[in-house]
Design brief:
Structural class: alpha/beta
Number of strands: 19
EC number: 3.5.1.28
Helix content: 25-40%
Largest sheet: 6 strands, mixed
Strand order of the largest sheet: 15-12-16-19-17-18
Strand content: 15-25%
Number of domains: 2
Distance between the termini: 73 Å
CATH class of the largest domain: Alpha Beta
Protein name: N-acetylmuramoyl-L-alanine amidase
Number of helices: 7
Enzyme class: hydrolase
Shape: globular
CATH architecture of the largest domain: 3-Layer(aba) Sandwich
Keywords: Hydrolase, Signal
Organism: Paracoccus spongiarum
CATH superfamily of the largest domain: Zn-dependent exopeptidases
């Protein structure tokens, strides 16, 4: 009888719901709103990817007045995360999210035109569950919002100012980016297929400058013509312009089959001590650290201050590399097998400016060279860089209070 009772109790326990898990969390850094190609006769297709730490029940629908996409997530907690930090949030007029009711959270995207939900699904396999929603623009007659959606915004916070549209392109306050087209003048850089590295990266830098300027981001060019600028002068020009970020642009050549795809280089921390000594010897002390006069200090103290400044700068550079490679992967840009690498390039030595060297591709690779000479590919890569810079700048500003000063 006791055995029967134990068996019955076991069956009852098995039938009960599993112990409640903690709420699912949105991986904001991996999630994104992206543009899917061009809208030849209207707004471009959009895709929303929401990456979670576990799968959750969800529902998706459209509402009108204004036109909005609603995404409801059951058992998800979005508290403490800012909608404006979602990658690509500036593609829509406004975005907001918050707790709804009875265990549901709601995400609301104001859309710039009528759209339909072309597909929606949740992938629950590793590495992380992803809710993937594709939107396609339609004309007003084909727009089919859900009826009776008056409660769509109940209890939600005001919309995040994403900056979409004309007013939307406002950049983070006082953001200046230094663009550094490599080589130039008597140094053409790598050459292949009748193209030179110096010309290709200068063309790209000019196109990127136009897009950044349209977003309200200040741009300082280390060279704007086919002239030679020394490596040390490039850093000095960036610092004189008050740049927070330096992006050095290259398209090198390596023996056939050894390299292809975009690659981001960071200053190699193992070379810090040697680089610090070189900076002390080769620069005027007042030129080393903005706002810090090292005149009259001995070399050991100056080198120590440089290393101290680089601790935070290196982390900020690495953070931009993550933003950039993530965005390139999302947008289908071909990447090197090791997309982020370390190197002791001189233009990455600055102790007070976040710096990366971007190999847009390798001119020695036929496919990469074709991309670099293709205006459509360059426009896509320019958009990737502009989005990465904007997203990094917002994140960098949010982290500023936690950095050493």
């Amino acid at each position: 009888m006791i055995r029967v009772l134990i068996l019955w109790l076991s069956l009852c326990m098995a039938a009960l719901p599993a112990a409640a898990e903690g709420p699912a969390r949105l991986d904001l850094g991996a999630s994104a709103l992206t543009r899917e190609g061009r809208g030849w006769f209207g707004p471009p297709p959009l895709r929303l990817r929401l990456v979670l730490d576990r799968a959750v029940p969800y529902r998706v629908f459209m509402v009108a007045d204004p036109i909005r996409l609603i995404v409801d997530l059951k058992g998800a907690d979005l508290a403490g995360q800012k909608p404006g930090d979602l990658y690509g949030s500036d593609l829509v007029p406004a975005i907001r999210w918050g707790r709804q009711q009875r265990g549901w959270s709601r995400i609301v995207l104001d859309l710039p035109a009528p759209y339909r939900i072309a597909e929606a699904g949740q992938r629950t396999t590793a590495p992380q569950p992803v809710i993937d929603i594709a939107l396609r623009a339609v004309d007003a007659a084909a727009f089919a919002p859900r009826a009776s959606a008056a409660t769509a915004l109940r209890d939600l916070p005001p919309p995040a100012d994403t900056g979409a549209g004309a007013a939307a392109e406002a950049a983070p306050e006082a953001l200046v980016v230094a663009l550094d087209p490599g080589h130039g003048g008597f140094d053409p850089g790598a050459e292949a297929g009748g193209a030179t590295e110096a010309d290709l990266v200068l063309t790209f830098a000019r196109e990127l400058r136009e897009v950044l300027a349209a977003r309200g981001i200040g741009v300082a060019m280390t060279r704007d013509d086919d002239s030679f600028v020394s490596l040390e002068d490039r850093m000095t020009r960036a610092r004189a312009a008050g740049a927070r970020l330096l992006v050095s642009l290259h398209a090198d050549a390596l023996p056939e089959g050894q390299a292809a795809g975009a690659t981001v280089y960071l200053w190699n921390p193992a070379a810090n001590e040697r680089a610090g000594q070189q900076l002390v010897l080769r620069h005027d002390r007042a030129d080393l650290l903005a706002g810090v006069d090292l005149g009259g200090q001995d070399d050991l103290l100056a080198g120590t201050l440089i290393d101290f400044a680089r601790v935070d700068t290196q982390a900020r550079s690495a953070n931009f590399a993550r933003f950039l490679t993530s965005r390139m992967a999302l947008m289908g840009i071909g990447l090197h097998g090791r997309p982020v690498q370390g190197a002791a390039f001189s233009v990455l030595k600055s102790p007070d400016i976040a710096s990366v060297l971007l190999e847009l591709g390798f001119i020695s690779d036929d496919r990469d060279r074709a991309n670099l000479t293709d205006p459509d590919w360059r426009a896509r890569m320019v958009a990737v860089l502009a989005d990465s810079i904007s997203g990094w700048a917002r994140d960098d500003g949010a982290r500023a209070a936690m950095l050493r000063r």
